[in-house]
Design brief:
The chain is an alpha/beta fold. α6 (123-143) packs parallel to α7 (184-203) and α8 (227-236) packs parallel to α10 (286-297). It is 42% helix and 14% strand. The chain is built from twelve helices and 13 strands.
């Protein structure tokens, strides 16, 4: 990583920005009890970082219980979050249907496993985790009279976005193949959204749905199937960035601080069972994100292998976010260039990718 200019940034700058943009929403959560499933992954860590920072900054007396499969692993990963006195960790699997016996005002249901490896090698477990896990949480929310639930879905629910469609709107029914196991994750999320609609109708639950697209930021894994993360890792290590396919698929990238601002808003203000696209609407090809990463971070350039791609989505994966903007004033504030730099700097500071 050989940036030829100084970039003054630290993660606390992002947390301060989140508090400034979401102050009114944080204050609405004062004295709340929140239950978060999937609270120790990429999105979960950002939720916890933001809630901790706002709790101290705004004196919210906010208490959070986090469902995790492995507390010791998380404690090693983020000790300041694991040991914070307003956070309590409940160690269990979401499929065990064993949750804390206490009253919560809000639930953020983020538990899932977006692993391409799991989708390929054990799609049954992936499907069950998403669908049965969501059903377990919704039953729990119904029996405990939870005020508001935020379900973290995915832009994958649309299936394969046609090349001619620049951006996906929420009212597009999608292009899906119901018997392609590569789409297990996508179909699981679609089924989970249906469960949300059923529980909202039958039990009058108030549920917001966030369909999340590609992300960047600290805590992003650099060594799994996220191409942009792999490119950042290669640049940090001073290696040539390798695009293993043909580089033609198009994506867009939202930075984590913007994501948290949007999610907090939708938790409190999203219309019941109205899905919202959450992501950037600015298209960039895989080849161009590799080129941009190399240019910004240095290293030894990039190479496109020109091999036919075999992933689940070989075309575009870019949302239309006008609904979130028009109805709720939500917008992206961090550029993809800044997102790349901040992700790289944080990982470099942690020795990740070295």
């Amino acid at each position: 990583m050989t940036m030829d200019y100084e970039y003054n940034w630290k993660i606390e700058d992002d947390l301060e920005e989140i508090v400034q943009l979401s102050k009114d929403n944080f204050l609405k959560l004062k004295n709340s009890e929140i239950f978060i499933t999937g609270g120790t992954g990429f999105i979960g860590c950002w939720l916890l970082e933001s809630l901790l920072y706002a709790n101290e900054k705004l004196d919210l007396n906010l208490r959070v219980t986090i469902l995790t499969r492995n507390f010791k692993s998380f404690q090693k990963k983020a000790p300041h979050l694991a040991n914070y006195n307003k956070f309590k960790f409940w160690e269990d699997e979401i499929l065990n249907n064993n949750f804390p016996k206490q009253k919560f005002s809000h639930i953020i249901h983020a538990a899932t496993d977006a692993s391409a490896s799991l989708n390929e090698n054990n799609p049954i477990k992936m499907f069950d985790t998403i669908v049965e896990g969501t059903k377990n949480i919704l039953n729990y929310a119904q029996s405990n009279n939870v005020n508001k639930i935020l379900f973290l879905s995915s832009g994958a629910v649309y299936g394969r976005q046609p090349w001619k469609m620049k951006n996906i709107k929420e009212d597009w029914s999608g292009d899906v193949d119901f018997i392609d196991p590569k789409l297990t994750y996508a179909e699981g999320k679609r089924a989970a959204e249906m469960l949300c609609a059923i529980f909202a109708k039958q039990y009058n639950l108030n549920i917001s749905i966030a369909r999340i697209f590609a992300l960047l930021g600290p805590y992003l894994s650099l060594d799994i199937h996220f191409a942009a993360g792999n490119f950042i890792r290669d640049a940090i290590q001073g290696k040539e960035i390798i695009v293993h396919g043909n580089g033609l698929p198009c994506r867009s990238y939202m930075y984590a601080s913007d994501l948290i601002v949007w999610l907090l808003h939708l938790l409190l203000h999203g219309e019941n069972c109205e899905p919202y696209n959450v992501g950037s609407d600015e298209t960039i090809s895989i080849k161009d994100i590799a080129k941009k990463t190399s240019k910004i971070l240095g290293g030894h350039g990039y190479k496109v292998m020109e091999i036919k791609d075999s992933g689940w989505n070989l075309g575009r994966y870019v949302p239309d976010t006008s609904k979130a903007f028009v109805n709720h004033g939500l917008k992206k504030t961090v550029s993809v260039e800044d997102a790349i730099i901040r992700t790289a700097l944080w990982n470099k500071s942690k020795g990740i990718g070295d």
